[in-house]
Design goal:
The complex is a heterodimer.
Chain A lengths: L1 H13 L11 E5 L20 E2 L2 E2 H11 L4 E6 L3 H10 L10 E6 L6 H11 L6 E5 L2 E3 L4 H13 L3 E9 L17 E4 L6 E5 L13 H6 L4 E3 L2 E9 L2 H8 L6 H11 L6 E7 L4 E3 L3 H12 L19 E4 L3 E4 L3 E2 L4 E2 L3 E3 L4 E2 L4 E3 L2 E2 L4 E2 L4 E3 L2 E2 L4 E2 L4 E3 L2 E2 L4 E2 L4 E2 L4 E2 L4 E2 L4 E2 L4 E3 L26 H16 L19 E3 L6 H7 L6 H12 L38 H16 L4 H15 L3 H18 L5 H22 L3 H18 L7 H10 L5 H11 L8 H5 L1 H17 L1
Helix pairs in contact in A: 4-7, 13-14, 13-15, 15-16, 15-17, 16-18, 17-19, 19-21
Chain B lengths: L1 H15 L6 H18 L7 H19 L4 H29 L20 H9 L7 H13 L8 H14 L1 H28 L1 H4 L4 E6 L3 H12 L4 E6 L6 H11 L3 E5 L4 H4 L5 E4 L3 E2 L5 E4 L2 H10 L4 E4 L54 E4 L6 E4 L2 E3 L4 H8 L7 H5 L1
The chains are: A alpha/beta, B alpha/beta.
């Protein structure tokens, strides 16, 4: 250290005499994102410590700060501050050899960047210009020029207090978001001085209207407006910025409040300038999409030298770069038949089994991947076990997750720490699974990050034990339809599936690691030409009313242009839920009323309702404990008998009855195969109870005559019953 | 020695972060650091050489791992190890001669396991040959004798070792001193390699010749300038050396020295090669088989030169001479630099929107730093010790390196 000081002194004396009294370049690093976008992962580990290509994000930021000549960094930590401090204490940054002094500042009541800066102001540690950066920024830009410009401006104009780094990035025409998954930002700046004149990050793309203050037009002779610039969230600030935050205690968000506040405030006249970078890289990881994007940029060396094969960070092992951008640690055990596709990184100590296919993914350290596993576009962290035949698609899998045989992860799934998923389970798209239950009260204020005071790794034994006992119960009665979130991760699975927040549904595909589905893009580009009001409808939210069927009784909704968003599976679920409520004692009339309204809102026919209801009834029969087919039949018959009134309500014509038979066929084939041997018996009992008429059964049979052999299983099964019916009707005819 | 440790970490960090540009600077700094290591090493009573070797190795291993692509680091580490061995050997021989011992082996100090001993005659032969000026003759003389007596008799070794211990103490300081002296010489060699190389320039560049080069190499620049200073008139074609366009810089420097210079694109090399008398390029490293690792684009120049039977000359200081073969697993032949040298990331960011293009990027930008040129394409190497054929390189290497040091990492783990 002593020697280092000596060097520093020597270098400063060698500089111009005017900067002899220079202060070392300082930086404020916010080790807290102050939002909830990385939940549920951030419940257990702070965002800055999440691995990005197997290196904690904060390493990238600190490495960059060091490379641009910052000498003193104040790391502000709030949520999980213990973990951040512990990490920094063990890292190379706090070793005496480090050329960067890292100091942590801790506060537990800060809920926004504004609060953080106020805390830092109170500590009065900032003595000169400083770099303000968030701990999740990856960059390789050189700051020298921006810093020089900033200082020059400051000399001429003490009101120029901040320089923002921006970068060219064209937002998509369709989704109006950048490749980092952030909303498009509209900026205006002076072409000569690069002074920022206007900043809007929450513009509603559907309205395509931006309101500019007319003073802006009056005051500046010319300005550029851009929507293709990306804010890198790297700012060079003067100490005044801190005092401004102090003065305006309501400033929370750096951009939304502070920047906009300064721009509209013409009393003080503070100015913000921009510095555009071209070839170098800078990006902030704001959401899961930018996590994926930045990961891929790193793997393609855009962030050189912060790339895996240059051992920039002390903590990573040696990587070997193969063709097509495949990075492999030297001690990876890979089966000969496993295929590693382009742009993939496999961390040290990982094993990959036979015939597994991996592409576009990052695999952490000490992971075990079984046979016939396909991993595409996934970010798998450390110590993950993936058993045979799993299929993972565009998912984030955190440390210690265990996927048992045959698990399928659909695009956009997030599995938080130590989640276990049982055999043959499919986790639906965009689900988030965590060991911790979702906080029930959803705070609408998105600025709040879950600030668990002094939380280490939250691993509450009570939760784990509770889960295991519940698992035990589950495995004892292997009911297929258990409504708790727990069963969704399967028998012997551990974890809760978080349901998405209301209104947050819209963001799921925007901010997920998965690529935007083609259907969604088509829909959005379609909407662009249509009524902007229908854009951003979500599949799972209530669909807009589509084209009404001609046979529907209800006419009223006239905007018939929208496509049919309703998914019959969703409808079935809704009906089932309503039906479940009927079980708990709601009046049957009310149930019918509710189902009717559902039918209208989802634009379904009576036949659909009948089918869905029938499905619910059958499931009820299935849920009751049974040991043999006979018992199952008994149960089902009982349930059918009990609910036949409601069913009959929807069976107004032969068409609907046929629908029921078709639905039943479907159930037997796909949903509950236990019923397939009972098909004909239940069919006859339905006939006996007057739920189905013989016309319906006969016309179903005749419809099926032309079908494939595979479709005719059930017709054949009930052949005797049908011939009996035919004979009976012929007899009837004769009687007539 | 926290100070030394700090120096090492500092240098490792610099290497890791690619802060040191150029083989020469790296080589020099490595040698200086190793000199520090040697001078700060506490010397025990016995086994001095092995202690020094272990210390240098431990540091060298870290340095090599820090930037495996910069082969000069490994070269210097091996050269220093070789120096220690040689100095030890010569002082031992001197001691032996002083004691009047003629037989038995004494070179097994500390290296019983991994070093085949040489016969006394071979030791004497090695001692005779000075370190700096090895010649083929001494090598030829050396080889058969050591082959005849590959293993020394270990029986008498111990007793003799004891009898000599008193003498060893007397030269305890001497070994370290000698090694440091030799390292100083090495540093000086690295410093002066450009002058030594450019002294030979007039022998290779003749009046009114047309020379082609690619990119910018300091050695090439000095070489050409030296020829110019000796009143040779010649023209130089400079291929610009995309994507870093160092050729532009070189052209500027050459014009500053009054050399007639033409800048061409890399892709025009083949068109121009028929008018060229000689190709002179620099190298990143010269491998043991005579192959060359050189800035990207040079293999293309070499192929063009071969097609038109134009001599392809590589100028490089001896610190670039790498004792490894390109097929050695620890040799990293290439490095992928930042693709933004080629493309402006912002401009092409919409081509790399993984969100809407099915999750995998369609556009890849690859920016390799180096080419590998086969030995058969190289006509001549000009190093500070003179001109050599590619087929002679392995001999040169035998002069500079000891076979035991080739794999620095594996032995020490």
């Amino acid at each position: 250290m002593a020697q280092k000081r000596g060097q520093r002194g020597a270098s400063s004396s060698a500089d111009d005499p005017e900067v002899v009294a220079r202060v070392p370049l300082q930086a404020v690093l916010l080790a807290d994102s102050f939002n909830l976008k990385f939940r549920p992962i951030t419940l257990e580990r702070p965002k800055v410590l999440l691995p990005l290509v197997n290196v904690p994000m904060i390493e990238y930021t600190l490495a960059w700060l060091e490379s641009v000549g910052v000498e003193e960094v104040f790391v502000f930590c709030c949520a999980h501050s213990q973990q951040v401090k512990q990490y920094l204490n063990q890292s190379e940054w706090t070793k005496p050899a480090a050329r960067l002094s890292v100091t942590t500042i801790e506060s537990h009541d800060a809920i926004s960047a504004g609060d953080a800066l106020r805390v830092i102001y109170e500590k009065s540690v900032i003595r000169g210009d400083f770099v303000l950066i968030s701990g999740d920024t990856v960059s390789n830009m050189s700051l020298a020029q921006a810093l020089h410009e900033h200082k020059e401006r400051r000399k001429k104009d003490p009101l120029a207090i901040m320089t923002m780094v921006i970068k060219h990035s064209k937002p998509s025409n369709v989704t109006h978001q950048t490749r980092l998954g952030t909303d498009e930002v509209i900026m205006a700046f002076d072409p000569e001085t690069k002074e920022l004149l206007f900043y809007e990050d929450k513009a509603d793309p559907s309205q395509r209207i931006i309101s500019l203050d007319k003073i802006l037009l009056a005051d500046s002779p010319a300005f550029y407006m851009h929507n293709d610039k990306q804010d890198c969230y790297i700012d060079i600030c003067s100490p005044e910025v801190l005092s401004l935050f102090m003065d305006n205690f309501d400033y929370q968000h750096l951009r939304r409040h502070f920047v906009k506040g300064l721009l509209v405030d013409d009393i003080m006249g503070y100015k913000i300038f921009t510095h555009e970078i071209h070839s170098s890289y800078a990006a902030r990881i704001d959401n899961f999409r930018s996590y994926g994007t930045v990961t891929k940029d790193i793997m393609q060396s855009w962030t050189y030298p912060l790339v895996p094969n240059v051992r920039y960070f002390g903590c990573c092992s040696n990587m070997k770069l193969d063709r097509q951008g495949v990075f492999k640690a030297l001690d990876v055990v890979q089966s000969r038949s496993a295929q590693i596709g382009a742009v993939t990184l496999i961390g040290s100590g990982s094993t990959i089994g036979d015939h597994s296919v991996i592409s576009n993914s990052v695999i952490g350290q000490e992971c075990t991947i079984g046979r016939n596993v396909s991993v595409h576009g996934c970010y798998i962290w450390n110590n993950v076990i993936i058993e045979d035949d799993c299929k993972l698609n565009h998912a984030i899998v955190c440390d210690g997750v265990h996927l048992r045989t045959g698990v399928v992860l659909e695009p956009g799934v997030i599995l938080s720490f130590k989640v276990e998923v049982g055999q043959q389970i499919t986790i639906p798209a965009y689900s988030k699974v965590s060991l911790l239950p979702q906080p029930s009260i959803q705070d609408s204020d998105e600025e709040l990050e879950y600030a668990d005071a002094n939380s280490g790794v939250i691993e509450s034994p009570s939760i784990t034990s509770m889960i295991s006992t519940r698992n035990a119960e589950l495995s004892s009665d292997y009911s297929v339809t258990e409504n708790s979130g727990l069963s969704e991760v399967g028998i012997s699975g551990v974890g809760y599936i978080w349901c998405s927040f209301e209104g947050g549904n819209d963001d799921e595909w925007r901010h997920s690691v998965a690529p935007i589905p083609a259907s969604k893009l088509a829909e959005l580009s379609h909407d662009d030409y249509e009524d902007p009001d229908v854009s951003y409808q979500e599949v799972n939210s209530t669909p807009v009313s589509g084209e009404l069927r001609p046979d529907s009784e209800i006419t009223g909704d006239d905007d018939a242009d929208g496509t049919d968003y309703g998914d019959s599976a969703d409808f079935d679920k809704e009906v089932e839920a309503t039906f479940q409520r009927a079980l708990t004692g709601v009046n049957q009339e009310n149930v019918i009323l509710e189902i009717n309204s559902l039918r209208l809102s989802c634009n379904k026919s009576h036949a659909d309702c009948a089918g869905a209801l029938f499905l619910s009834v059958i499931k009820l029969g299935l849920e009751a404990p049974h040991s043999s087919n006979g018992e199952l039949y008994q149960n089902t018959a009982k349930e059918i008998n009990r609910w036949k009134d409601i069913l009959k309500h929807y069976l107004k014509s032969v068409d609907e009855e046929i629908e029921i038979i078709l639905k039943f066929e479907e159930i037997c084939l796909e949903i509950a195969t236990e019923f397939s041997p009972l098909f004909s018996t239940i069919l006859s009992s339905l006939y006996e109870k007057d739920i189905l008429s013989e016309d319906a059964i006969l016309s179903w049979a005749s419809e099926k005559e032309g079908a494939d052999e595979s479709d005719k299983i059930f017709v054949k099964q009930s052949e005797r019953f049908i011939t009996w019916l035919k004979e009976a009707s012929e007899e009837d005819d004769e009687d007539d | 020695m926290p100070d030394l440790q700090a120096l090492v970490t500092d240098f490792v960090l610099k290497l890791k972060r690619r802060k040191i540009e150029g083989s020469q600077a790296t080589a020099k700094q490595t040698a200086e650091l190793l000199r520090q290591v040697v001078s700060q090493q506490r010397m025990p009573y016995t086994n001095q050489a092995s202690v020094l070797i272990d210390a240098v190795r431990a540091v060298g291993e870290q340095l090599i791992a820090a930037n495996p692509i910069e082969l000069a680091v490994g070269n210097i580490v091996r050269r220093v190890l070789h120096i220690i061995r040689e100095e030890n050997l010569s002082s031992t021989t001197a001691a032996m001669e002083g004691l009047g011992l003629t037989a038995g082996s004494d070179d097994d100090e500390g290296e019983h396991e991994d070093r085949p001993g040489l016969s006394a005659a071979a030791v004497a032969a090695a001692a005779r040959s000075t370190l700096r000026a090895p010649s083929l003759q001494t090598l030829l003389e050396d080889i058969p004798e050591s082959a005849v007596a590959p293993h020394p008799s270990s029986s008498g070794g111990d007793s003799e070792g004891k009898s000599k211990s008193a003498d060893r103490s007397s030269r305890s300081k001497k070994l370290k001193h000698d090694v440091i002296e030799a390292i100083n010489e090495l540093i000086q060699d690295i410093d002066t390699c450009h002058e030594l190389i450019s002294e030979q320039a007039v022998e290779h560049i003749h009046q009114n010749e047309v020379i082609l080069t690619l990119g910018r190499s300091r050695t090439v620049k000095e070489f050409l300038c030296a020829a110019k200073e000796k009143k040779r008139t010649f023209r130089v074609f400079v291929a610009e050396g995309a994507p870093r366009y160092q050729g532009h810089v070189l052209a500027k420097e050459l014009v500053g020295k009054g050399i007639q210079t033409t800048v061409i694109t890399d892709s025009a090399v083949f068109a121009m090669i028929s008018r060229v008398n000689m190709v002179i390029v620099g190298a990143h490293a010269i491998m043991a088989n005579g192959g060359v690792i050189a800035p990207v684009g040079i293999n293309m120049v070499a192929l063009a030169a071969q097609r038109h039977a134009v001599p392809f000359v590589v100028v490089a200081g001896s610190h670039k001479l790498c004792p490894l073969y390109p097929h050695n697993p620890e040799v990293l032949l290439n490095e992928f630099r930042c693709p933004s040298d080629l493309l402006d990331f912002g401009e092409f960011s919409d081509c790399m929107d993984y969100g809407s293009l099915g999750g995998s990027p369609l556009l890849h930008v690859v920016n390799p730093a180096f080419d590998y040129v086969q030995p058969k394409l190289v006509s001549l190497f000009i190093t500070d010790t003179g001109g050599h054929n590619p087929s002679y390189v392995y001999r040169l290497i035998a002069d500079y390196y000891s076979a035991d040091d080739l794999v620095v990492q594996r032995n020490s783990t």
